[in-house]
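The instructor's notes for this session suggest beginning with a concrete chain rather than abstract definitions. Hand out the sequence below and ask the class to guess, before any prediction is shown, which regions might be ordered.
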Amino acid sequence: MADQSPPSERHRQGMATRRAVLGDAHVDRAVAGETAFDQPFQQMITETAWGTVWSRPHFSKRERSIVTIALLASLGQDDELALHIRATANTGATEEDVCEALMHVAVYSGVPAANHAFKIAKSVYAEMRKSVGDREDKA
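After discussion, reveal the predicted structure:
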């Protein structure tokens, strides 16, 4: 199932963008967990989501992050939502940006979707603050 051809330029760009947004640790874990079964899917999302859409020049990574968070919250994609909230540390989207995006979710996708997304965001931000505090304590 796995494609053995060398990575395309779009794949290389996608991997660079993916690493810039999600961080090396996350991407390294995803690549390490890749199997012959999901390798075609991983290649496709690296090339299309990251190498094409996220690499386009018009929106900044911050703007794409805000849009992505609103879409994932609207769709109820909790794991991906948490992942992209964590990624705001790399994209420049602030907690205030995320709050505003989730306010839009409440109006356009429904209060229950936004309510649940706020719960996820609060939990992720608390985890992120604890992680920063733990690193500062060790320094």
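Then share the key points. The mean pLDDT is 94. The chain is about 80% helix and 0% strand.
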